[in-house]
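Thread: quick sanity check before group meeting

JM: Hey all, I'm pulling together slides for Thursday and realized we never actually wrote out the predicted structure for the chain we discussed last week. Dropping the sequence here so it's in one place. If anyone has concerns about the input, flag it before I start.
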Amino acid sequence: MNRKNLFLPLICLVLLACCTRTEPIVILYENDVHCAIDGYARIAGQRDIERQQTPYVSIVSSGDFAQGNTAGSLTQGEAIVRIMNAVGYDYITVGNHEFDYSVPQMQHLSQQLTAQTLCCNFSRFTNEENHQSEIDLFPAYAVRKYGSTKVGFVGVATPSTFRSSTPTYFIDDEGNLLYDFHQTDTYERVQQAVDAARGEGAQIIIVLSHLGDDPEVAESRGLIAATHGIDIVLDGHAHHLLNERLVNDRGDSVTLASTATKFAYIGRLTIDAQNNLKNELLPVSECHAVNQAVWDTTLAVKQELDAQVNRPVGTTAFALIDRDNSDNRLVRTRETNLGDLMADIARYSTGANIGVCNGGGLRAGIYRETITFGDVVSIWPFNNTMRVTECTGQQLLDALEVGVALLPKENGDFLHVSGLRYTVDPRIPSSVIWNENRMFAGVGNTRRIVRAEVFVPDNGEADRLPYEQKGRWMPVNPDASYTIGGQSYIIACSGASGTFAHMRLLPLQGEPLNDVAAVCNYIEAMGGQINPIYRQSQGRIVIK
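JM (edit): ok, ran it. Output follows.
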């Protein structure tokens, strides 16, 4: 036998041993940070600790990082991207709130990120030689090699983005869809991405999911049940704290994990040398390591915004609440004093008969005496303008019906009102009709709104602050005409499930008024202090 041939098996064994991974892979992850920027230095600090034990460390995000407070809204997400780049993220998927500043801005943020954006179910319609086709805006997956192990990452966004962000961003002036979130085949597209990553040799599949628990479109548990080949789903959107095992469509066990929101936790996924997975949720309060470079970037962002954010605009002697003492969100299910105030601002700033604001648009309350500009931005962080629409009484009643369709469950379409009061009986089945995108299409034979009255000011009272007006209450007349004022999101951009899109949008009178400026103007009109009438909610909405 040739002596050289004797050494070939030994050489192969040595090379194989050299290529075999012995150190663990660590994937640190988060979801729904919503501009809680102090946590970024902590996740980077945890990465620094992990790198002392293994060279194989990555940081990923399941979306909703660009919106949540002034750091996002005043910079349209760019300050957040700046900090995330300092951290050094590897992969992200997009949450619905990455679209809040428009699709072009979302694409701009993705281009600015050093991390790779992955999303298997967001496409743009194109017409090429009169043949309609779709172009995927992001790669569906990526495969990374850690030593001898290939790991596949797949991204997926919630199809509810179409209605939970700004619907008009995704349609043209004629109402035709410009973009597709693949509501009817989301799970199939994830499976295709998983199969493709496996085909490239991925031994572990991690899904970066922003699906949450909305079963009417696509949700994380449904994704696991309908697919195979996934090892773990890192989920966002629902703000849950999750670390559980579920069964896929072949009976195999899959981990579903989520870190709640605003950096309450950091996720730590460890893949050992035998490709076994261990998932942990680390309380950020116990993650004491801080990466100094990321913290310096965070401080620089804060300092740049401080002068604007901390400018006082008024005072209040009581809290303006969006939630109860147990931190349960209230504004999507019932009237609050904050909702009354903001609806009054909508009516006062537009001069409409009725003012409205949707509970989903109220993102914070005020719980301290001095009200700053930053506090106001935190309540209404989406940079809307104030608009007016004209409708019939029947259309008004339909809009109210949509707002209460999900009671007692939360509903971002729930309407706080001014110049209007109504009673709802949630024991009556909702008959609201939805189209395939879960946008308003009509109301059936049953109605939950059992009483609705509009306020008619006395002559000469209409130009006063709403709480100063004298007048009378009259039943809403289905055939009468009314004007409604509110933020452009619901009045002009098909928010609130597109209910207001069926009304007649009135042209702007002069320069558009920003919603935050409208709040500041109203506080100034009150003499710089929130009037005591807002200490309690006004009884405008009665739930039987």
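AS: nice. The CA atoms of residues 363 and 379 lie 5 Å apart. Residues 10-18 have pLDDT under 50 and may be disordered.
JM: adding both to the slides.
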